[in-house]
Amino acid sequence: MTSLAGLDQELRRIGGEYSGTWTYALTDLSSGESIGKDADAVMPAASLIKVPILIALYQAVADGRLSLSDRTKFDEQHRFGGSGVLQRMTNGVEMTVRDAATLMIIISDNAATNMCVDLVGIDSINELQRRLGMEQTTVFRRWSADLVNLDARQMWVSTAAELARNLELIARHEAVSQDASEDMLRILRRQDYRHELSRLLPWNEMNMLPDHKQNWVAEKGGSSPGGIRTGGSIFHGERGYFVLACFCEGGVGEGGTGREAEGNELLGEIGYAAWQALAALQ
Predict the structure, then answer these.
(1) Global pTM exceeds 0.70
(2) How far apart are CA 33 and CA 17, in angstroms?
(3) How far apart are CA 185 and CA 86, in angstroms?
């Protein structure tokens, strides 16, 4: 059995030369044991905040405020740049609530995220996080033009420990309900973007791992200017099952500002080391 203390030392070694600030939290879902580095430090969440939004959406469904099959309409008030496809669509495009949630997660569609936020309400998202014991995870505003000049900590924040806990609730089928958790897992497993914690795993051209029914990653990542890179993943492999959340800020290495940025590289190395230690067949 891999020592989590030994893994913690390895992850800290990997991050030792990162030029910015980084934090992480990992929970082994088999043993319940956890490790981390500055796991309670409040960090900019970037699009990783969409995981708590997803949970709040499913809670609203469980409370009878919404149905996943309800139709919702994309309009000008939802339009926002960055990732996603809806920003390029004509006003009035309709989809189900679940379709909007799927776009929010698997291609990190910011306009679809605004649709989900408006359906649930910012206050409801934050109140649910407090009920779940997450004191720091907060959505301050929706995606809008006034974000351009804001500090990232005025947008959405969380901690590695709290984000990992959100993922743990989903993985253990304890987020909202067993059925809701399973459906959230289904969406997170269909992630199109593998640029963060799972980036170094052996994905094939179909975005699957070898023996994909046994080996899979349900995840969400995020990025913002200033070297902010975030990743949260549920790793399931032949030897183990664990959740990992990692936040990076301020990395200014030679990789640039895109998907090869220093933060992306660190996230990939952290995720791969944890996968090899805890889950991959050796």
Answers:
(1) yes
(2) 27
(3) 23
Measuring CA to CA, which residue among 16, 52, 5, 38 is closest to residue 246?
38
The mean pLDDT of 189-197, rounded to a whole number, is 95
CATH superfamily of 4-278: DD-peptidase/beta-lactamase superfamily (3.40.710.10)
| Closest by CA position to 93, among listed 69, 73, 70, 71 | 73
Residue type, 230: T
Query: Cβ contacts of residue 93 below 8 Å, gap of 6+?
Result: 73, 74, 86
- Are 53 and 116 in contact by the 8 Å Cβ rule? The answer is yes
Task: Name the residue ranges covered by the structural domains of the chain.
Answer: 4-278
Distance of CA 7 to the CA centre of its chain: 22
Conformation bin of residue 173: beta by default, left when phi > 0, alpha when psi is -120 to 50: left
How much is the average pLDDT of 3-12? 95
Residue 122 · residue 85 · CB < 8 Å? no
Give strand ranges (E) for the chain: 21-28, 34-37, 43-44, 71-73, 94-96, 138-139, 156-158, 216-224, 228-236, 241-249
Question: Is the separation of the CB atoms in 279 and 237 below 8 Å?
Answer: yes
The pLDDT value recorded for residue 199 is: 96
User: What is the per-residue pLDDT across 210-268, written as a single tens digit (0 to 9) for each?
Assistant: 999 999 999 999 998 889 999 999 999 999 999 999 999 998 776 666 788 899 999 99
pLDDT at 280 over 90: no
Nearest to 217 by CA among 278, 261, 258: 278
Q: Which helix (H) or strand (E) holds 11?
A: helix 4-14
